[in-house]
């Protein structure tokens, strides 16, 4: 009992943030060890802490806050984020990541975990904004092209964060509380509309998605391994918190279109990380579709696919990162035959590719099959989702084609004309740790179902169409669907392989994105220039009254001179003729920093 109570006091984000500080202060190997251990602790806490609300309190003496909330959903996501965090820290250490970068990355991870475990919208907004700031710094740290992309990333995510903040404020006006309503989510009307737009940025709705392929290929390959999971998957989970009930047709079909759109543009990419970035959007599409459908099997499939995506998407970025690390090449058409040079990396890539493409025996097969069933009217789907089912089906074919293409051109096409070493031991441990989990949860699907929310433990049942149903991922019909998808994709790749290598088609988002960027930039400049003008007027006003206070007689004389028929004698100024000045002892940057620190301390004390 005492151990359980102690664990409930161990706030997961704080453990990781403390580890980030230790990474900066301690020798490299010791600091990275603490980083990995902090995330192992998050994994352990997620597994064993009883369900409930912990570390509750009030903000400003009035608003109830729940920073640490454990239910089957946050537990499930916490397990995935903790497992991934351990592997990414090991990967970063073996890949030569600096202590400073890793400390920033761990701060980013801490904010993501804090958002996942938040039990109220106020804490969520706080963690959401920290996640946006720290992820931007993770991008910026690499320098070069990543800096400009990071500015665009920050602008878009800042806009999304403001919309989420307004949604939460509108929700409070409507309900009088910030604490989650697990059955209803955000209040109907304006709060849900604003949340859909703001969260739509982070989960890459079509039209709001271009930051993914624009940003993720530009920083270091280690940064990409961190970025691949935390922002988008945490945001998808929060989208579920906002829309936990069923029947959101717009969300469901947006998800279906995302799966097709992302897979289509992934097929057209030369840059390996751009291809994987588009597939973040495609796989998020499946998750968003499940959230939109909202039935028991759809919700379980969506959160299960979110869990699996955290594992296999980061694994794929790690494998591709090792290829870039060893060869210095990002273009998949400039590679080939690397399976002989890098067999361990090729195997790790295969584990991730088989998982994301839903090959039987791998975790993606289980969760994606559940989403197919949720949309298919011949299983558990309503008639209005039949078109959605076919969108998801087409997206699955596009996913298979993309990873056949990526694996073929990088590892199997032709002979490698370079000799390169395989992955480092730490990189191998990280990749095979994630790959092993992907394989484990595909073969031992019962264990995966036991962890999954909504699905009954041991019996693996759920409610559908008013009756209790059993989960059967390896039924003959499911295996037949997987075989059909694989066969269609293999034949299609043979047909389209050569034309595909010559196709170049610009993502419409690449046009919309700069327009949005410059519109945001101009509006920001207009706002800051207006602020500067008001500031100049305010300063002039203060200086004038400051002078009047020092020279009241001269001020009266000056006013009298403006009156007709009045003679005023010349007088000497009381300050010896020096101009009236107010001296600032700190620069504007230092002033803002000090004010921010002071406000942070005040807010902390108020909580």
UniProtKB/TrEMBL annotation:
Domain of life from the UniProt record: Archaea
Main location: membrane
This protein's UniProt keywords: Cell membrane, Membrane, Oxidoreductase, Transmembrane, Transmembrane helix
Locations listed in the record: Cell membrane
Source lineage: Archaea, Methanobacteriati, Methanobacteriota, Stenosarchaea group, Halobacteria
One cellular-component annotation, GO: plasma membrane
PANTHER family to which the protein is assigned, alphabetical: HYDROGENASE-4 COMPONENT F, NADH-UBIQUINONE_PLASTOQUINONE
MF terms (GO), sorted A to Z: oxidoreductase activity
Residue ranges occupied by any NADH:quinone oxidoreductase/Mrp antiporter transmembrane domain in the UniProt entry: 118-374
Membrane topology: Multi-pass membrane protein
Record-listed E.C. numbers: 1.6.5.3
Organism of provenance: Natrialba aegyptia DSM 13077
InterPro entries listed in its UniProt record: ComplexI-like_HydComp, ND/Mrp_TM
Presence of keyword Metal-binding: no
Record field: transmembrane: 6-25, 32-53, 73-93, 100-119, 125-142, 154-173, 193-212, 221-243, 249-268, 280-300, 346-367, 387-408, 428-445, 586-606
Name of the protein in question: Monovalent cation/H+ antiporter subunit D
């Amino acid at each position: 009992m005492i151990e359980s109570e102690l664990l409930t006091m161990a706030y997961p984000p704080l453990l990781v943030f403390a580890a980030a500080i230790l990474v900066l202060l301690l020798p490299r190997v010791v600091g990275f060890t603490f980083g990995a251990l902090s995330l192992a602790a998050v994994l352990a806490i997620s597994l064993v802490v009883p369900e409930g609300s912990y570390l509750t309190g009030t903000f400003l003496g009035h608003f109830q806050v729940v920073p640490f909330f454990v239910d089957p959903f946050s537990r499930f996501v916490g397990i995935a984020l903790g497992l991934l965090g351990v592997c990414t820290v090991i990967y970063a250490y073996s890949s030569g990541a600096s202590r400073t970068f890793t400390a920033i990355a761990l701060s980013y991870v801490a904010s993501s975990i804090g958002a996942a475990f938040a039990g109220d919208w106020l804490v969520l907004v706080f963690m959401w904004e920290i996640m946006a700031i720290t992820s931007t710094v993770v991008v910026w740290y690499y320098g070069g092209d990543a800096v400009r992309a990071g500015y665009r990333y920050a602008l878009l995510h800042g806009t999304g964060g403001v919309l989420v903040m307004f949604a939460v404020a509108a929700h409070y006006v409507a309900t009088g509380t910030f604490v989650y309503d697990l059955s209803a989510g955000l209040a109907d009307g304006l709060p849900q509309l604003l949340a859909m737009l703001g969260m739509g940025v982070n989960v890459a709705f079509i039209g709001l998605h271009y930051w993914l392929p624009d940003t993720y290929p530009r920083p270091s390959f280690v940064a990409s391994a961190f970025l691949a999971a935390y922002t988008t998957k945490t945001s998808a989970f929060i989208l579920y918190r906002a829309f936990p009930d069923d029947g959101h047709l717009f969300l469901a079909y947006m998800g279906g279109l995302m799966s097709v759109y992302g897979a289509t543009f992934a097929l057209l990419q030369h840059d390996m990380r751009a291809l994987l970035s588009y597939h973040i959007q495609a796989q998020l599409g499946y998750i968003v579709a499940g959230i939109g459908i909202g039935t028991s099997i759809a919700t379980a499939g969506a959160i299960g696919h979110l869990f699996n995506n955290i594992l296999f998407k980061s694994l794929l970025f790690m494998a591709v990162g090792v290829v870039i690390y060893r060869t210095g090449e990002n273009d998949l058409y400039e590679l080939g035959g690397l399976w002989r040079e890098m067999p361990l990396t090729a195997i790790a890539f295969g584990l991730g590719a088989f998982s994301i493409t839903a090959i039987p025996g791998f975790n993606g097969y289980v969760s994606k099959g559940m989403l197919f069933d949720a949309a298919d009217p011949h299983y558990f789907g309503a008639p209005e989702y039949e078109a959605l089912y076919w969108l998801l089906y087409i997206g699955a074919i596009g996913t298979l084609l993309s990873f056949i293409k990526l694996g073929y051109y990088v590892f199997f096409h032709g002979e490698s004309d370079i000799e390169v070493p395989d992955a480092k031991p730490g990189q191998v441990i990280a990749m095979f740790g994630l790959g092993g989990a992907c394989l484990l949860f595909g073969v031992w699907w019962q264990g995966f179902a036991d962890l999954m929310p909504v699905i009954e433990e041991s019996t693996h049942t759920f409610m559908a169409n008013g009756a209790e149903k059993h989960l059967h991922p390896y039924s003959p019909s499911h295996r037949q669907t997987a075989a059909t998808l694989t066969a269609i994709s293999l034949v299609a790749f043979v047909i389209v392989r050569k034309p595909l290598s010559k196709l170049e088609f610009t993502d419409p988002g690449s046009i919309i994105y700069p327009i949005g960027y410059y519109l945001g930039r101009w509006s920001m400049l207009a706002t800051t220039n207006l602020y500067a003008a008001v500031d100049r007027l305010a300063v002039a006003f203060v200086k004038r009254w400051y002078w009047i206070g020092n020279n009241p007689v001269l001020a009266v004389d000056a006013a009298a001179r403006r009156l007709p028929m009045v003679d005023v004698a010349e007088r000497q100024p009381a300050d010896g003729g020096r101009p009236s000045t107010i001296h600032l002892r700190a620069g504007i940057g230092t002033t803002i920093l000090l004010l921010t620190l002071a406000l942070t301390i005040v807010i902390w004390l108020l909580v």
